[in-house]
Every structure is written in structure tokens, then in C-alpha cells.
From TrEMBL:
Stored Pfam families: LGT
GO molecular function: phosphatidylglycerol-prolipoprotein diacylglyceryl transferase activity
One GO CC term, this protein: plasma membrane
Protein name per Swiss-Prot or TrEMBL: Prolipoprotein diacylglyceryl transferase
Any one Gene Ontology BP term: lipoprotein biosynthetic process
Segments passing through the bilayer: 20-41, 68-90, 110-129, 150-169, 181-203, 215-233, 297-314, 321-339, 359-376
Keywords on record: Cell membrane, Lipoprotein, Membrane, Transferase, Transmembrane, Transmembrane helix
Family according to the record: Belongs to the Lgt family.
Length: 387
């Protein structure tokens, strides 16, 4: 396993780059997942705009204003922090003496470099705005297309997805949460995908309504990118060994051609330090699982990327609003429901004598909701044709 990119580069290329410890493997793949999803969403929104399914919204924009003090101040603060901390990582931090997260959380850094970087970025913003400044600012009406709002949507998905993932994880592990609520909330681990999906979806749909974006076409366009993001995000779980793995698997392989690590894996050097010590290993991340478990993130990577390519390949053939998203809900729900059978989970819920996991409950609702949406979208389209 590769808790951070230092271990990945050392193992794959033989390069000892200690400062790469600052980049956590799980976070690295989450960032890739968001960027890839944003690219796929932008591409699909543009296609739907060309077909006339999504239209621009006219908005007023004031051009030629001088740079506002607030904008310059925000630019300086952000650039100062980047120069102060990132510069400190390269020229001040000793990776052999201090853990990266401890350094980032401290007041250490190169303040003078932060001031220089902050001043440079602030001056550049001021210079650009000065060139665009007019004697009398003008109010213009411009067309804003849905694909131009993907950056806003991505930021909202990241922020509220994280909040939702933490909230739902706290509900799922309530006993642990009440014992240490602050530690649970600020911990880098303990994220529930469905919590992030639900909260982020609510916020983004509200945003789309406010910006007069057709919600049905937005969610349809989002379906492939959501599946892609989930599959890529699971790479972070697999390569970091973040504890989101399966139950113990000591069963014999059903087929001889299956690699041992794809059937039962012990996640050596996992980032959460679970398991027993690895003989001869010293330093951090020296544990492995014994006995081995099902590598469920690997299975989800394979399945979800296949489902993404299916959704991406059929998207041009599906023209009924809502149908694509309904198919995505069913696919996502079925995939997650069955993977839950071999995942490590808490089963604190009691529903008529059954003890399902939180994900099993939500995935079942997604399957039912997706089926209803498929039926409704087809029926609505038929009524529209016959009307």
C-alpha cells in the first residue's frame, strides 16, 4: 500500500522524494476523481447545449470597474498562505524529523516568502483589472451557459460532499462518534459516499434551480461523471488501504487464474495502521491484515468504471429527460447493495428484525427510486408524444 506518494514513488520508480509525504494517496485520487468528473460533465453539458436541450441564461455583468479592495485582500491572503506553507515544505520542513500533517497544522513556514508570493499575485490581479478599467463602468448583458458553471458545481460538490460524508458516517458509527465527536469530525478517515452524494446533490439542485438550469438534463449529464468519480475515488481506498475493505476471506479461489491479491489481500503498510506488525518493518505504516480480506475497493473500481463506459456509450441514444439518471441510480444501488455483503460494516440498525447497513438501506432506496424515475420518464415522454 501507498499511504502517501513518497511510498508510491519509492516502490514504483526507486526514487526517494521525502517531501512527497505531504501528498496523501487517498486525497490525490479524490482530487483526480473530481477533475475527471468535472471534465466529463463539461463535455456532456456542451453536447446538450448544442442540441438545444440546455439554454443559456442572461445575466447582468458590470465591466470596467476598478479592482475592489476586498478582492485584492482575498487574493493576498490565499497567496500568502500558499507561499508561507508550500514554500516552507520545500525549504524549511524536515521530513525526517516531523510528520507532514503536524507541520501543516503548526505556525511554521516561510512568512517572508508568503509576503512575496502574496504581493506578486495581488499586484498581478491589480494590473489586469487596471488594463480592463473604463472611465465609466458599463453594465452588459451576457449569456451564461450551464457548462460555464461546472467550476462552481465542482467546488460545491467537494465542500458539501465532504460535509455530507462526515455527517452520514457519524450516524453510521454513532457509538464511536459520541465518544469523540470532535476527533471523528476532523479525522481524514471516516467518509460515507452516500452521505456526500445526498447532501451535495441537494445543494447543487438548489443551485441549478436558482440559476435556471434544467434540472433533469443536469442530472442526466451528471450520471456518467458520478459513476466515473466513484470508480476513481475507490482507487484511493485501494492504494492507500484506508480501512474500506472487505470481510475476512479464507475461502479457496474459485478459478486458478485469479491473482491471489485480487481474491484475498492483506493490505500491507495500510494508512490506518490496522492489523498485525510486518516482520522486519520499522517506522510508520508497518501493519498488515491477518487473515486477508476481500479487496472490495478493487471490485468497485472495475465494476464502476465498466458502468461508466456503458453510461457514456449510451448517453447519445437516450433522449428522454430523467431516464439516464434513473438508470444510474439503479446501477449504483445494485452495485453497492451486493458489495455490502462482503464489506466490513457496522450493523446498528434494526428494521423488523433485520440488521442492514446504512449503505444497504440507501442503495435499496436508490434502486426503487431509480426504477420509479425510469417508469415516470418513459410515461411522461409517451404522454408528451401523444398530446
Amino acid at each position: 500500500m501507498y499511504p502517501n506518494l513518497f511510498y508510491a514513488f519509492r516502490d514504483l520508480f526507486g526514487w526517494e522524494l521525502p517531501r512527497l509525504q505531504i501528498v496523501q494517496t487517498f486525497g490525490f485520487f479524490v482530487a483526480i476523481a473530481f477533475l475527471a468528473a468535472a471534465y466529463a460533465l463539461t463535455k456532456e453539458l456542451k453536447r446538450r447545449e448544442q442540441l438545444g436541450w440546455l439554454i443559456p441564461v442572461k445575466e447582468k455583468m458590470i465591466v470596467g470597474k476598478p479592482a475592489a479592495f476586498g478582492d485584492l485582500a482575498i487574493t493576498f491572503v490565499i497567496a500568502f498562505i500558499a507561499g508561507w506553507k508550500l514554500g516552507g515544505i520545500f525549504f524549511d520542513w524536515d521530513p525526517y524529523q516531523e510528520k507532514p500533517m503536524v507541520y501543516l497544522a503548526s505556525m511554521k513556514g516561510l512568512w517572508w516568502l508568503g509576503v512575496l508570493v502574496g504581493a506578486a499575485f495581488t499586484y498581478n490581479v491589480y494590473r489586469v483589472r487596471k488594463k480592463e478599467e473604463l472611465p465609466i463602468p458599463e453594465t452588459r448583458i451576457v449569456d451564461i451557459y450551464p457548462h460555464q458553471r461546472v467550476a462552481d458545481i465542482t467546488v460545491m460538490a467537494a465542500i458539501f460532499g465532504l460535509i455530507g460524508a462526515k455527517i452520514f458516517n457519524s450516524l453510521e458509527t454513532w457509538k464511536d462518534f459520541v465518544q469523540d465527536p470532535i476527533g471523528s469530525l476532523i479525522s481524514a478517515s471516516g467518509l460515507t459516499f452516500y452521505g456526500g452524494l445526498i447532501v451535495a446533490a441537494y445543494v447543487i439542485i438548489r443551485y441549478a434551480i436558482k440559476k435556471k438550469i434544467n434540472v433533469w438534463h443536469l442530472v442526466d449529464a451528471s450520471a456518467p461523471s458520478l459513476m466515473l468519480a466513484y470508480g476513481l475515488g475507490r482507487m484511493g481506498c485501494q492504494f492507500a488501504g484506508d480501512g474500506d475493505w472487505g470481510i475476512v476471506n479464507e475461502q479457496p479461489k474459485p478459478f486458478s487464474w485469479i491473482p491471489n491479491w485480487a481474491w484475498a489481500f492483506n493490505y500491507p503498510h495500510n494508512v490506518v495502521g490496522e492489523g498485525v506488525p510486518i516482520p522486519g518493518c520499522t517506522g510508520d505504516y508497518c501493519n498488515q491484515l491477518m487473515p486477508p480480506v476481500f479487496p472490495t475497493p478493487l471490485y468497485e473500481i472495475i465494476v464502476c468504471l465498466i458502468l461508466f463506459f456503458i453510461l457514456w456509450s449510451v448517453r447519445k441514444k437516450i433522449t428522454t429527460p430523467g431516464l439516464m439518471f434513473g438508470i444510474y441510480l439503479v446501477m449504483n444501488g445494485v452495485e453497492r447493495f451486493f458489495i455490502e455483503k462482503i464489506r466490513v460494516n457496522t450493523r446498528d440498525y434494526n428494521i423488523f428484525g433485520f440488521h442492514p447497513t446504512q449503505a444497504e438501506i440507501i442503495s435499496t432506496l436508490l434502486i426503487l427510486g431509480g426504477a420509479v424515475l425510469i417508469w415516470y420518464s418513459k410515461k411522461y415522454n409517451q404522454l408528451k408524444i401523444t398530446a
